[in-house]
Amino acid sequence: MVIRTTMSMIKRPAMTIEAAPAVARALAADTEVSAALFAWFSPAFPTGGFAYSHGIEAAAAEGAVAGESDLALWIEALLSHGGGWTDAVLLNAVHRVALADDEPGLSDLAALAEALAPSRERLAETLGQGEAFSQAVAAGWPRCAWSCAPLRLAHPLAAGIACARLGACARTALTAYLTAFSA
Predict the structure, then answer these.
(1) d(CA 41, CA 34)
(2) Cβ proximity of 92 and 160 under 8 Å
(3) Which end of the chain has fewer CB atoms at under 10 Å, N or C?
(4) CA 144, CA 42: separation in Å to the nearest integer?
(5) What is the rounded distance in angstroms from the CA atom of residue 146 to the CA atom of residue 143?
(6) Using one digit for the tens of pLDDT, what is the confidence trace for 104-139?
(7) Phi, psi for 102 (deg, rounded to 5)
């Protein structure tokens, strides 16, 4: 049995002339958000040069990470219980704070992010990444910077603020951030 369709048989929602600009604006906004997120979480962005590996070199040297399945388990643990989880919680929280223009909330989260850093080295790295990220975003996407935010801020906080100011929903922001985190 052959089924034939023609364009006239396909039901499409009617697009009114009044709705067309709104659809075009939504598509343009979505494209702008996607393009910014691809740029921000690319290895070529100024934060991409940092190389904190969450101890994987030592684990590989000790034989704890010896192949693809071990690596997948290692990354899963980072995202479920380690630094990826902590960063995700912080990014999500600051996203809400930035949308509400809650300056005291930002101050509280900045203190929490610093307290949660497991070592002096990790604290220095996240603050350095956050600063580099904030400077690059402010230069290329000035509307995504939050004037009350300190320049030296943990990376997930700087990223969450920029994503909220950009108009990226928290879920999309987290997906982009954690993809870069685990790459």
Answers:
(1) 11
(2) yes
(3) N
(4) 17
(5) 8
(6) 999 999 999 999 999 998 899 899 999 999 999 999
(7) -95, 85
Give the C-alpha distances (Å, rounded to integers) separating 135 from 18, 84, 139, 144. Answer: 40, 23, 6, 11
Half-sphere exposure of 64 toward its Cβ, with a 13 Å CA cutoff?
9
d(CA 48, CA 145): 19
Closest listed residue to residue 88, CA positions, set 159, 162, 137: 159
The rounded distance, in Å, linking the Cα atoms of 126 and 128 is 5
Model confidence pLDDT, tens digit, residues 4-43: 444 344 444 444 445 555 544 544 558 889 999 999 998 8
Q: What pTM was estimated for this model as a whole?
A: 0.79
